[in-house]
Design a protein that fits this description.
By secondary structure, the protein is mainly α. It contains 6 helices and no strands. The protein has one domain: Ferritin, CATH 1.20.1260. Helix 1 runs antiparallel to helix 2, helix 1 packs antiparallel against helix 4 and helix 2 runs antiparallel to helix 5. The site of one fe (ii) ion has 6 residues, from helix 2 and helix 5.
Length: 196
């Protein structure tokens, strides 16, 4: 089977896809909230420009997922225990610009990984693949500029060690959070499938 050659998911795949797309949508919306926090910390014109473009991308991504959910006959749902909320519960409120950038970087890395692995699946339908390809291109740029800005500030403040420690800590927490999210998605899906 060739990725993207399926016109429409079958009913069993559709349920899982709608659930996953609602989680994607929630992560995009909550990611936008994190960027609004960064707007208050990074005042230089280049960062303000990058943040505005980045914020526009994330809200557009949320819209692309919303539209795809509707095209497939689903409904956008408010997600209560999504990715960013779980990360926030484990990491706490970021205290400064380096914590905000490090958290954004780790979350962007997961978004990119998730979208790439979904696009590589053999059961992905054409319409969903188009959305995955559109958002993946943007996520590469997000990772790149946030990474550059984080290390630029670290160099200016002479605190490379703190940034490395922050990234290591956040990545370890993130792996646990993502494993929990995947397990809960599977449980939720099993519950949906067993419901009359
Ligand atoms: Fe995104
Ligand atoms: Fe992003």
């Amino acid at each position: 089977m060739t990725a993207g050659k399926i016109q429409r998911p079958n009913p069993e795949q559709l349920e899982a896809l709608l659930l996953v797309m609602n989680f994607y949508r929630d992560a995009e919306l909550q990611g936008a909230r994190l960027l609004l926090n960064l707007h208050r910390h990074l005042h230089d014109p280049v960062s303000q420009t990058n943040l505005s473009r980045h914020l526009a991308d994330e809200t557009r991504h949320a819209w692309l997922w919303t539209r795809r959910i509707s095209e497939l006959g689903g409904c956008p749902m408010a997600v209560t225990g999504g990715y960013q909320r779980r990360m926030g519960q484990r990491i706490g409120v970021p205290k400064d610009v380096m914590e905000l950038l490090a958290l954004t970087l780790v979350a962007e890395g997961r978004a990119l990984d998730r979208y790439k692995s979904h696009a590589a699946r053999s059961d992905v339908d054409e319409g969903t693949l188009k959305v995955l390809e559109a958002v993946t291109g943007d996520e590469h740029w997000h990772l790149s500029w946030v990474n550059e800005k984080l290390w630029q500030i670290a160099a200016e403040k002479g605190c490379d060690g703190r940034v490395r420690e922050l990234l290591d800590r956040y990545q370890a927490i993130e792996r646990e959070v993502y494993a929990g999210l995947e397990a809960d998605e599977a449980t939720l899906l099993a519950h949906l499938r067993s419901s009359p």
